[in-house]
Design goal:
It is a single chain. The chain is built from 1 helix and 11 strands. The chain is an all-beta fold. It has one domain: Calycin beta-barrel core domain (Lipocalin, Beta Barrel). It has an 11-stranded antiparallel beta sheet. It is globular, with a radius of gyration of 18 Å. It binds protoporphyrin IX containing FE. Protoporphyrin IX containing FE binds next to strand 1, strand 4, strand 5, strand 6 and strand 9.
């Protein structure tokens, strides 16, 4: 038995096309953001290394998305990270933040140009100001997929992100990417955190314009 409907093709009627009005807890993250207080703990041959970083994230609403009866609202994002005062990319990431109102589910997809993609999920209420999402390697849903070199040398077994939305309009994240590094017994916690301040409002989704 599953909780899913028998009819997997029919779409919901009367879909509200205004994504910004239907993003649940993700509404507070829509827009263009800058974070100047990022901290990365990364793997190096001689052990963990801490690095400060600056980040720009653009999160823009997409039109409502249906899978038959399933209705998702979401933000498309691009994250660009550099070391302070540098131009060279330190970390780049694209994907979606999705909200399914019917189940109170948040989904975060991420693709990074190391040759890796992951999909994390968690539950939240529509007015939540804190939520946590998890992706686990080896799962058929909400998993992690790496290209062969990373799988061999830096196997990512878990990805976790906690988001906190603050009353002053900022938001922040703390994430833990758990790597099994070849030749090392203990899992490596590649952690990142930042606090984001808005630099521009979001652009409404195409159908809402
Ligand atoms: C703001 C977030 C992040 C930053 C700033 C960042 C930065 C970095 C840096 C600089 C390294 C390389 C260490 C070096 O070679 O000097 C690294 C390694 C790695 N990162 Fe991240 N990372 C972030 C998030 C993530 C996420 C979300 C994932 C995957 C879900 C990830 C997966 C990896 C992996 C697998 C490695 C090891 C591969 C290698 O060293 O070649 N990272 N990260």
């Amino acid at each position: 038995m599953s909780d899913f409907p028998q009819d997997i093709f029919s779409e919901p009627a009367d879909i509200d096309v205004d994504t910004l009005a239907n993003l649940g807890p993700l509404r507070a993250m829509a827009g263009v953001w800058e974070g100047r207080r990022g901290l990365d703990v990364k793997p190096k041959a001689d052990g963990p290394r801490k690095q400060a970083f600056v980040e720009r994230i653009e999160l823009q609403p997409i039109d409502p998305q249906t899978n038959g009866p399933q209705l998702l609202y979401g933000l498309r994002y691009h994250t660009h990270v550099t070391k302070p005062e540098q131009v060279k990319t330190y970390h780049d990431q694209v994907g979606y933040w999705l909200w399914e109102p019917a189940t109170g589910t948040v989904i975060h997809t991420l693709t990074i140009p190391r040759g890796q993609t992951a999909m994390a999920s968690g539950r939240a209420t529509a007015d939540a100001t804190a939520f946590e999402l998890l992706a686990t390697q080896g799962q058929e849903t909400f998993g992690i997929c790496s290209a062969p070199f990373l799988q061999h040398a830096f196997r990512t077994v878990e990805f976790r992100i906690q988001v906190t939305i603050n009353s002053d309009g900022t938001w922040g994240y703390e994430e833990d990417t758990v790597l099994m590094i070849r030749g090392q017994e203990a899992p490596f916690h590649h952690t990142d955190r930042n606090l984001l301040s808005r630099i521009a409002e979001p652009t409404p989704n195409p159908l809402a314009r």
